[in-house]
Specification:
By secondary structure, the protein is of the alpha/beta class. It contains 9 helices and 10 strands.
Amino acid sequence: MAVAGQVPLAEMRHIRVAFGGVHAVDDVSIDLREGEVIGLVGGNGAGKSTLMKALSGAHPPNSGEILIDGKPVSISNPRDAKVHNIETIYQQLALADNVDAPANVFLGRETVTWWGTMDDGAMEDATRKVMGRLNPNFTRFATPVRYLSGGQRQAVAIARAVHFNARIMIMDEPTAALGPAETAQVRDLIRQLKNEGIGIFLISHDIHDVFDLSDRISVMYHGNIVDTVDRTKVNTDDVLAMIILGKKPDEASTEELAELELRSEPNPGASI
């Protein structure tokens, strides 16, 4: 669990990412602590995914600084991110559908025997151990992942990250297109990761996920951070106001808040 005052696992300072003359991320600072979930929210094009691509090495920033454990680091590509124990779970899971869970966990980092052949037994044993921590009910180790449920596929992708010692995890819409039971499974996985001290940036349009799982919520609007708030000190209307208006709740006018309330009916706060 995050402790106030501890050195952040990851800190991004004054990050700027530009595409041509447009700043998709403009002077953004954000940090993540051990065992903490930061819900990163905002409308389409707000800059959430671009900011996380700067941390994951998928799109290095034009300027700014990234610190891991309080020390400045250079992250120019995804390999650099992995060196610093940063793993990304994308909405499209990048799994090889035709092979089983152990093969996916070790995809690109296979274990080999002294004779240079694949050590399938060692990879399966390691996968069983890590899956036992994350999802003890998972038993389909020999099944090609194309036949697994959405929740089980997420578990495989997360197991791959955890086995290779992820300390910082970026999760992009992890419950998108999942049914209620599978969504509950993924939420349980995220809670387990928190218990193990892993810090998570959670990008989500599902406000229920955000409030159920996050410790703090960072709201982005047009490439900027509107505010980062303690989840227990705000409600869904406060967060929606920041997402839609780009203003903190105490900065919005009565008229703006009234219009927002009308726009939110009849099902306020369902998604963001």
